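FORM 7B: Structural annotation worksheet

SECTION A. Query
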Amino acid sequence: MQAIKNYIGGFFGSLLERIFVFFMALFLSQAPQYMNLYLNVLSGAKAAYEKSVKEIAEKAGELGMSTKEFIDDLAKSQSQAAKKSGELHQNQIRNFESAKKAFDAIKNASAFTRPFIFLKHVDWALAKNVQFQPALPFTMESLIYVIVGIILGMVLFRVFAFYPRRWLGGGGDKKQQPAY
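SECTION B. Predicted structure
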């Protein structure tokens, strides 16, 4: 029993470390909430892009053209306004495809891969529009993130607090004593 106490005391030896680990776990526990709110914003953006793309396709259909032919015709036009309109339409189609790909990837990701998929596909302009409010989540996914936050907090604290001293030549032979 004493060995277990010493082991746990070694990990949570200082008040500063406890505080750091607590805030890391708290921070990561909010990740699922933030990613779900981001999905809501991304869904709205995707719907707006989809509406624009459908309108472009309808206008192209009225002229008996495909969407690509319509945009290419605008881009080849002598009019600067038509060229800019073609560029705008092409950007709307690109944005729709990007938003659809990101939404599907994040929504279908597992709890373990979601943070990495999120970081790969996040649109920071949309992320700024997330109306985030911290919450106390009670999901299995949040529990996983809390556990990862505790482990990550302990590791990061140890790396930043103790290894620089050893690398710089000070205190390498001294072991930190538990706080209790």
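SECTION C. Observations
The chain has a mean pLDDT of 84. Residues 13 and 180 are 8 Å apart (CA to CA).

SECTION D. Sign-off
Analyst initials: ____
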